[in-house]
Amino acid sequence: MINMEALNEWINTNPLFVSIIKFMVILAFILIAIQLIRRYLKNKISNTVIRYKAQKGIELVGYALLIFLAIVYFSGSIKDFTIVIGLFTAGLAFTLQELILSIAGSIYIFLVKVYKPGDRIEINGIKGDVIDVDSIYTTMMEIGQWVSSDNYSGRIVKLSNAFVFKGPIYNYSQDFPFIWDEFNLPIRYGSDIDLAKSIIIKIASETLSDYTANSKAQWNEVVNKFYIEDAEVDPTLAISLTDNWIQFNLRYIVDFKKRRYTKHILNDKIRLEIEKTNGKIVLASTTIELIKIPDLKITRDDAVKS
């Protein structure tokens, strides 16, 4: 049997611990309520964007409520509140440094808008699309690694938000959701170079017209917002002479998520048009040219005796 008198005496002599226990019960109740509401919204809302924002909103409201309740709950006894805050701060400073940095990183990401869900970024050597940002981790769908170009690898990566303070962050889509890409075409010497130039520029201009038009207005906003020089967003072609062929370098702007597919379309259309020239333009490949075959002397031994 529990000695009620001893229990009441312990409660009266340890009001701080009793207050902490009561607050922990309230804390557990609110956290469970947040998870139940998030699960309910997940099952009831079909739209991915609205569901994500609703779940995040409930999470933020719950955390704000916890902070408010903590202040109200402990402010009744300033002395006790000061002791709790002091112990809590000391413990965090020595044992939860990485956690504090992660939480600070999440606040920094939110306020400065370093990136958001839907952005494609590279951080700490990892490239991928951001699919979630919480108070501790950034979750990414990885691209690259053992697959070529910008395809998904299938791995979901959780990265501490503390990394926003530890190195550069490459954002493929913030402010300007386009990137420059390029590829080389080797054209054999003796081909109709002017015809090749016109074919490549025409195909690039027609295929990339939507990207070029949409990117110009947004690029002007970037130029006005940042200290940066203006850049050419129309497709450009540069020619250089090599030992084996004339190298055509096509540079163009493209949607950051359609780089691989756009390169495929450009290469395929250019190939088909070059084939229609009936040999006026020939794609080059590595060749070896023999300038002279050395003289060979063959001697026969006729001293074979029968």
Describe this structure in words.
The chain is of the alpha+beta class. It has three domains: 4-95; 115-171, SH3 type barrels, CATH 2.30.30.60; 178-275, Alpha-Beta Plaits (2-Layer Sandwich). 49% of the residues lie in helices and 19% in strands. The chain has eight helices and eight strands. The protein has helices spanning 4-13, 15-44, 48-74, 78-95, 97-112, 193-207, 209-225, 259-275, and strands at residues 120-123, 126-133, 137-143, 152-160, 169-171, 178-187, 236-241, 246-255. It has a five-stranded antiparallel β-sheet with strand order 4-3-2-1-5. The protein has a three-stranded antiparallel β-sheet with strand order 6-8-7. The radius of gyration is 33 Å and the shape is elongated. The mean pLDDT is 80.
Write a compact overview of the structure shown.
The chain is an alpha+beta fold and 306 residues long.
List keywords for this structure.
single chain, 306 residues, alpha+beta, SH3 type barrels, Alpha-Beta Plaits, five-stranded antiparallel sheet, three-stranded antiparallel sheet, 8 helices, 8 strands, 49% helix, elongated
Tell me what portion of residues adopts beta-strand conformation: 15-25%
Q: What is the averaged pLDDT score?
A: 80
Helix content: 40-55%
Which topology of the largest domain does CATH recognise? Alpha-Beta Plaits
Number of separate strands: 8
Taking strands numbered 1, 2, ... along the chain, how are they ordered across the largest sheet? 4-3-2-1-5
> What is the CATH architecture assignment of the largest domain?
2-Layer Sandwich
Outline type: elongated
Class derived from helix and strand content = alpha+beta
Nearest-angstrom radius of gyration? Answer: 33 Å
